[in-house]
Amino acid sequence: MTQTEAAAPHRPPPSSPRRVTAWLLKLSAALLAGLLSLALTIAILLAVAFPQLPDISGLTDYRPRQPLRVWSADGELIGEFGEERRKYLPIQQIPAVMQQAVLAIEDSRFY
User: Fold this and answer.
1) What is the C-alpha to C-alpha distance for residues 66 and 83, in angstroms, rounded to an integer?
2) Which residues constitute the domain of residue 92?
3) What element of type H or E holds 78?
4) Is residue 1 included in any domain, yes or no?
């Protein structure tokens, strides 16, 4: 044996196509199992959470509480009774600056 033969590092044999195919199959199976377990987890979470969600009709049929207003015979406001004292305004009567301020506070990405 010569010095060059003794000093040459041992190289592993090149990977065969069968080894690559087996590795890809194992990787695909692991990814598929992960996706299936994620889908099953999401389905279980939705099945548990869905019955506890509130009815959406309360959001679609919103009627804010208005105070009871008592008027005199000549049209003068005598008093208001109730917990909340609101005055309904159509959107056209609200100044544009106020609309923009509310949108800026609530959602900066709206526009």
Assistant:
1) 9
2) 64-106
3) strand 77-81
4) no
Total number of domains in the chain:
2
Which residue in the block uniquely carries the two structure tokens 């003068």?
76
Rounded to whole angstroms, what are the CA distances from 23 to 12, 18, 35, 36? 17, 9, 18, 20
Q: How far apart are CA 54 and CA 63, in angstroms?
A: 17
Question: Does some domain include residue 82?
Answer: yes
The pTM of this model reads 0.39
Tokens of 89: 């305004």
Give yes or no for a contact between 86 and 67, defined as CB atoms under 8 angstroms apart.
yes
Rounded Cα–Cα distance for residues 87 and 6 (Å): 96
- Tell me, yes or no, whether 35 lies in a domain: yes
* Whether the Cβ atoms of residue 56 and residue 37 lie closer than 8 Å to each other: no
Say whether both 36 and 68 belong to one domain. no
Residue 75 maps to a domain: yes
pLDDT digits (tens, 9 = 90+) for 17-47: 788 888 899 999 999 999 999 999 999 999 9
